[in-house]
Amino acid sequence: VHVQQDAMFERHGHDIHVTVPVTIDEAILGGKIRVPTIDGPVAVSVPPGSNTGSRLRLKGKGVAKPHGGGRGDQIVYLEVVLPEKPDDELRSFLQGWALRHPYDVRKKVGMD
User: Fold this and answer.
1) What is the mean pLDDT of residues 12-35?
2) If 0-12 CB within 10 Å is exposed, 13-18 middle and 19+ buried, where does residue 74 land?
3) pTM (two decimals)
């Protein structure tokens, strides 16, 4: 039996992996989003302060295990997506914020 690849879901054993885009405000403030699963969409809470690569685990939302062994999990990877065209209000806010709250994200990974 061959299983055809899906454009949205990726299977790893009995677990299903999916990447879901979130807005800046959903990532920073948290909130409820709808996430696709192989059984249909479900509501999921995005924790405040989430970032691209943050993982959420949906227990029992994966593929059925043989012999009644339950189901695997679904792993949701969050991907923060910026607005296509940030407006002047967002740019102005970020310029002021960045001056008051500098941080170096590349220093953490040795790229300083």
Assistant:
1) 97
2) buried
3) 0.86
